[in-house]
Design brief:
Two copies of one chain form a homodimer. Chain A is of the alpha/beta class. Chain A contains 18 helices and 20 strands. At the A-B interface, helix 6, helix 9, helix 11 and helix 12 of A face helix 6, helix 9, helix 11 and helix 12 of B.
């Protein structure tokens, strides 16, 4: 039902410009890079923008079209809606600010516009937002100044609904650059005067390209339906709910003019609906990236730990236990297989500190043999793996561990350390093998905990229904 | 009293080799790169190692010397101690493994060796460790395979006491590469059969080069004295105590053969002694790096927040409040100064989302003017700053914010985002300006919280004494 936004037949850019210091230039440029349909820049000052004919106003566009992107001052919106109605427009993405988030005057324009658009059957997206990016169609309707997305944006199963431009622009690009963040749709919703997170959630749950949905939300409109939708789907849903505190809630008012609601009520409701709640920016992206590679799972929280250093194993054991996860009790067969990799004077233990074995037999041989023994062990539900990007080995073993992950259907989290540029090479090798990489041990543990809770909850909800 | 380890007059390397796949080669190579005194490789198989004369045994070394580094199998240690005694040796750093961490046999060798060394007045460091690095003398007595430290190791005020080789080698190098991690001494203590963390803590508290002490410890020998020392000093002490859980404590046994003690007892005692407790690897390093740039502070927890995006400000406000920190109530003067930077239609709020002002006036002018107004505001105790490494600005404003930090003596934490290579450039600019950089907002908040607690505690302890 929102297809006219995601697969529009013709798009006007109202506020297009040739001035590359302005967002109106970048909306056209970004659209030109990916969108396959017809683009109509609109600005009375130009006859051409980026080699496209530019129209003085919406009325002058010679054909009907589905969608408009709006990037001129707020006060012109009502007239623009009327003009768009005459061109058969179904949806307008309003990327300008200056609406309800700036005070009563802007609020009135916003409310009047919603009423007017409703009369004409036009849906409004935004205002005060950055539109969306689609990794499959490569439609990017955003005033994002950088076109680095043309190399970084890869089609994948992660969709995001964000009430923050940064998370759909600069921060998202940083995540994409690190790798493993392959995208279905990233929707920046701003003040969400009409199209809102619950409607988008429903759309994305039905979207065959979307496997995981991450949300940064300052408020939730129609919370009851949002929770029902979350409960109804097997797709993992991760939510960073901002404005939980008094000062945060106050700040939400001036950011997207939303009422943020009670922190406790949200947390309890999220848990019951099987939503993974997170509290910080990287955490949101880490979880989304992790779940995107962990589609199915046998619930249970018994984790095996393979490290390159004794200290890392101990810190992992502490963090697992403190979260209520269990260090797996490796079977005698597994311990015997590990023993063969170790020098005679050293008994393997769990967490498995592989360093003495690596010294003896090399990284790749040891990691592959140890992972094979551990992943086939029925006492193991998941694996936390430390990898160290160093000169005296190759990341060739990661593909094999990725294969074992798929074979046994057990989630894996990788704690990756090392210096650049090797570190990036290892990270890429892991992500390409389907192994999500995290910067802190605690983040690996939090991810495995979320995976356990998500799939346990989904199993329980399936039994109830 | 441990000076013979840190400023040794002559060092023998027992187990030196020409085989660069072995640690005994790298100990000599690392020592040669920095140590100014005489080096005596010892190995009956070679007459020369790295152009140094090599001796068949300790007895053949023609002079007395202060220190030996031991890297041959455990069983030869007692004889080596006797030989060293004949050469006036004061301390031996034992880097080999195979002692109490591998079982009763190794344990007996270790205990016998300690008794024997005591008879001869020789101190033992290790075993099962990686020696130490000194950023000022550039003494590096470690079998670390990489010599990247020759470019990364910079003299500074951070000292570390770590019961994990990784934290004094691969992981440390990664931290140094990121910048801002300037080192006094990094001591890897292993099984700590004789020299232990409490003795080193005392030494480092007296060390004029050391300003901050970070510890990764699996156990604490002489805990009472450790806490007394922590209470007595103004130097921030950060401790990652591993082996808090049952499974972690079990793993400690097989890593460094230590008894780890009760988690609750440690946490309470740490808090009372003004120790900052951390729970993960990066967290330990982040806190050490942050405190190294935050030497003095006016206690109080009222934090100002400047961001590039509304969402970041709201998440920050939530995390501050959830930690018991207070979002500063900016004065009318400060708000008026901010108003001048903003477009007329936008009222500044706090957290200050600078994006509308940046669009109007550019990043540098806005960040400098906003930081000046905020840092001089008496209602502000500290600043949390988001910086975004992008193409449309320069990191030139960071030096000025560093100057304001020093002028007003108020701590600053930077949340840095952006793509490489710009991100690294901004990070360096911040660290060089004395502004510690963190990857997550929550880490910035945790740091400012630790700073507040540390200096509040130190003030209270000074009043008591």
């Amino acid at each position: 039902m929102l297809d006219f936004f995601f697969q529009p037949n013709g798009v006007a850019v109202i506020g297009a410009t040739n001035d590359n210091r302005k967002g109106g230039f970048h909306i056209v440029r970004n659209a030109l890079e990916g969108y396959k349909g017809k683009l109509y820049p609109v600005n009375p000052k130009y006859s051409e923008i980026l080699e496209l004919p530019c129209y003085p106003d919406v009325e002058s566009i010679p054909e009907n079209f589905d969608m408009a992107v709006y990037f001129i001052p707020a006060k012109f919106l009502p007239d623009t809606i009327r003009a768009c109605a005459g061109k058969g427009v179904k949806g307008i993405i309003i990327e300008s600010a200056g609406f309800s988030e700036v005070g009563p005057e802007g609020k009135k324009i916003q409310e009047d516009s919603v009423a007017l658009a409703r009369e004409h059957g036009i849906r409004l997206w935004g205002p005060n937002c950055m539109g969306y990016l689609d990794g499959h169609s490569r439609n990017v309707f955003s005033f994002m100044f950088s076109n680095i997305w043309t190399t970084l944006l890869k089609p994948g199963n992660v969709s995001l609904i964000v009430q923050s431009g940064m998370l759909s622009a600069g921060f998202l690009m940083m995540m994409m650059e690190r790798g493993g963040m392959d995208i279905s749709k990233v929707c920046s919703i701003g003040n969400k005067c009409d199209v809102h997170e619950t409607e988008l959630l429903e759309y994305l749950i039905d979207d065959p390209n979307t496997g995981v949905i991450g949300c940064y939300l300052e408020s939730i409109i129609d919370g009851r339906k949002f929770l029902e939708l979350a409960r109804s789907t097997d797709k993992p849903i991760i939510v960073l709910k901002a404005g939980r505190s008094n000062s945060g809630a106050k700040a939400v008012m001036s950011h997207t003019a939303s009422l943020s609601g009670s922190a406790d009520v949200y947390s309890g409701a999220f848990r019951q609906a099987g939503i993974v709640q997170v509290y910080d920016m990287h955490e949101l992206m880490d979880m989304a990236r992790g779940f995107s590679k962990t589609a199915a799972y046998r619930p249970g929280g018994k984790t095996a730990v393979m490290t390159f250093s004794g200290g890392a194993g101990i810190v992992t054991a502490d963090l697992l236990e403190e979260r209520g996860l269990i260090l797996a009790d490796l079977s005698a067969d597994t311990m015997a297989a590990l023993k063969e990799l170790f020098p005679p004077w050293m008994e393997p233990a769990h967490p498995v500190d592989l360093w003495p074995a690596v010294e003896q037999n090399g990284v790749s041989a040891v990691y592959i043999a140890a992972a094979a023994a551990i992943m086939r062990d029925p006492a193991v539900d998941s694996l936390l793996l430390e990898t160290f990007a160093w000169e005296y080995g190759k990341p060739d073993y990661l593909a094999e561990i990725g294969r074992l992950k798929k074979q046994y259907n057990k989630p894996v989290a990788v704690w990756q350390i090392g210096r650049s540029p090797l570190n990036a090479m290892y990270r890429t090798a892991s992500e390409e093998a389907g192994l999500p990489v995290f910067d802190e041990i605690s983040r690996c543990v939090a991810f495995l905990d979320a995976v356990k809770r998500h799939f346990t909850k989904k199993k329980a909800l399936r039994k109830c229904s």
